[in-house]
Specification:
The structure holds two protein chains of two kinds.
Chain A lengths: L3 H16 L20 H15 L5 H5 L4 H13 L1
Helix pairs in contact in A: 1-2, 1-4
Chain B lengths: L1 H20 L3 H25 L3 E6 L10 E5 L6 H8 L4 E4 L1 H5 L4 H7 L2 E2 L3 H13 L4 E3 L17 H9 L2 E10 L17 E7 L6 H4 L4 H16 L1
Parallel strand pairs in B: 1-7, 2-5, 2-6, 3-4, 3-5
Antiparallel strand pairs in B: 6-7
The chains are: A mainly alpha, B alpha/beta.
């Protein structure tokens, strides 16, 4: 089972490799849409990638409230650990 | 003003007749697009006749017999969309929110069944559907009017549409000299001398090579960069 740090590392990998975001910009409090320049279409892709990682279904609605990298880590963590 | 009045006259008088005569919504919209296109053509002819502008267009033959093409263009002036719609009578357009709220233009864009950009996911689906029907779509990837001399990163919307629908992209370059109706200028601030427009259609960009990327988000970013290099 992945802990928070591992989830963050995986998320960082996804963001750098698939969304061309520079690794230095990815911090826990970085804002996805402002600082990291993601858009809502990217968010849908990101949900897909995260599902592969956690093997659980992420409700797009749940993702709507997400603002920062740490919000994403929280959601994935919650889903994995129930 | 000519525009607003034209929009209202068409919405109040011409479009209702078409809606009355033609039952099929798709055919209705097709007729209305033709009318808008020919109105714009007429407008440009009048402007040329009055000596306000000259217009030269190159490369239109590239679109002959082609369907489902995403047409992208830089956006130096307010007249770009008029010129492009005049050239592409059946094309679909993506129209920004405040036009849908503008009482003078709302009727016309609605009757023509153009696409609204309010919600990005709905926009993407609407574009896929429209391209699937064989329509061409006109979009300005900069997202707003160009500012002369300023290189601004493009929005990823255009590339998103192309990658996720898998259609060819036709880049169109529009030159306007002297700059007129640029962002921040009012429509009545017209230049002293005659305005020359040059519209040149490029060659089709096959997005297949971009789509071979491992994932669409990466492909979209690469294609957006390709667009930026093409225009800047």
């Amino acid at each position: 089972m992945l802990d928070r740090q591992e989830i963050f590392d995986r998320l960082k990998d996804i963001l750098t490799n698939q969304f061309e975001i520079s690794a230095e910009a990815i911090t826990l409090d970085a804002h996805l849409y402002e600082a990291l320049d993601l858009d809502s279409i990217d968010a849908v892709d990101l949900i897909g990638e995260l599902q592969k990682l956690s093997d659980v279904k992420i409700q797009p609605d749940k993702f709507k409230a997400v603002r920062t990298v740490s919000d994403v880590v929280d959601i994935v963590h919650e889903l994995i650990h129930g | 003003m000519l525009f607003g009045t034209g929009g209202v006259v068409l919405s109040l008088m011409v479009f209702p007749i078409i809606k009355f005569l033609v039952c099929n919504l798709q055919r209705q919209q097709a007729y209305i697009r033709w009318i808008i296109s020919y109105t714009f053509k007429l407008f440009l002819t009048i402007m040329k006749g009055m000596g306000v502008l000259t217009l030269s267009v190159r490369g239109t033959e590239i679109l002959a017999g082609k369907q489902s093409v995403l047409v992208i263009a830089n956006h130096p002036t307010l007249l770009d969309v008029v010129i492009l719609i005049a050239l592409l009578p059946t094309a679909d357009c993506i129209i920004k929110q405040n036009v849908w709220r503008n009482p003078f233009m709302r009727g016309a864009v609605k009757a023509a069944g153009y696409i609204s950009n309010s919600d990005p996911e709905m926009l993407l689906d609407a574009c896929k559907t429209s391209l699937g029907k064989g329509n061409c779509i006109i979009i300005f990837p900069e997202g707003t009017r160009s500012v002369p001399g300023v290189k601004r990163p493009f929005q990823r919307g255009a590339a998103n549409i192309a990658i996720r629908s898998g259609v060819d992209v036709l880049p169109v370059k529009i030159y306007c000299d002297p700059p007129t109706l640029v962002k921040g200028e009012k429509w009545y601030q017209v230049p002293q001398r005659k305005v020359h427009f040059e519209v040149s259609m490029g060659t089709l960009i096959d997005v297949k090579t971009f789509r071979q990327q491992a994932n669409p988000s990466l492909a979209v970013r690469q294609l957006t960069r390709y667009f930026e290099n093409y225009y800047y």
